[in-house]
């Protein structure tokens, strides 16, 4: 069974009111430092979490930029390859372009 001393309480006849006030002041000071430490740790974890999220976001942004630059470079290479093919076979390229345009025009203006 718990006694008053086990629960942090003192007997009123054993201690003077001044001792009780001093004990309460010490308890409140301890509580204040504990709460301050708790908030300090909580805000520290919040800041570290925000920092980790920011780092993850920056890494994702760099990854997207890298992939975009790779895709753009591949597109430029494909355009240069098509230009090269057109320069090598200008007549065949013109005929293919004319035929594709003719077919698209017929499909767009097809009436039943």
What would you say about this model in short?
With 112 residues, the protein is mostly helical.
Structure notes:
The chain has about 110 residues and is an all-alpha fold. The chain has a domain at about 15-80. Helix content is about 80%, strand content about 0%. It is built from two helices and no strands. It has helices spanning about 15-90, 90-110. Helix 1 (about 15-90) packs across helix 2 (about 90-110). It is rod-shaped and about 110 Å long. It starts with 16 loop residues before the first helix and ends with a helix. The model has no long low-confidence stretch (mean pLDDT about 80).
Jot down its keywords.
112 residues, mainly alpha, 2 helices, single chain, 81% helix
What's the structural blueprint in terms of helices and strands?
Elements: H1 17-88, H2 90-108
Helix pairs in contact: 1-2
Which residues sit in consecutive blocks of at least 5 with pLDDT less than 50? none
DSSP helical segment count: 2
Radius of gyration: 40 Å
Helix fraction by DSSP (H/I, runs of at least 4): over 70%
For the biggest sheet, the summary is: none
What is the element string, with H for helices and E for strands? HH
Q: What does the average pLDDT come to?
A: 82
Number of E-state strands:
0
Beta fraction of the residues?
under 5%
C-alpha termini separation: 99 Å
Outline, from the CA principal axes? rod-shaped
């Amino acid at each position: 069974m718990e006694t008053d001393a086990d629960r942090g309480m003192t007997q009123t006849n054993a201690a003077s009111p001044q001792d009780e006030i001093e004990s309460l002041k010490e308890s409140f000071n301890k509580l204040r430092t504990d709460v301050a430490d708790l908030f300090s740790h909580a805000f520290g974890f919040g800041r570290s979490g925000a920092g980790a999220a920011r780092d993850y976001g920056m890494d994702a942004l760099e990854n997207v930029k890298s992939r975009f630059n790779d895709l753009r470079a591949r597109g430029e290479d494909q355009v240069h390859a098509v230009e090269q093919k057109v320069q090598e076979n200008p007549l065949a390229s013109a005929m293919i372009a004319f035929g594709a345009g003719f077919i698209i025009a017929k499909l767009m203006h097809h009436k039943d």
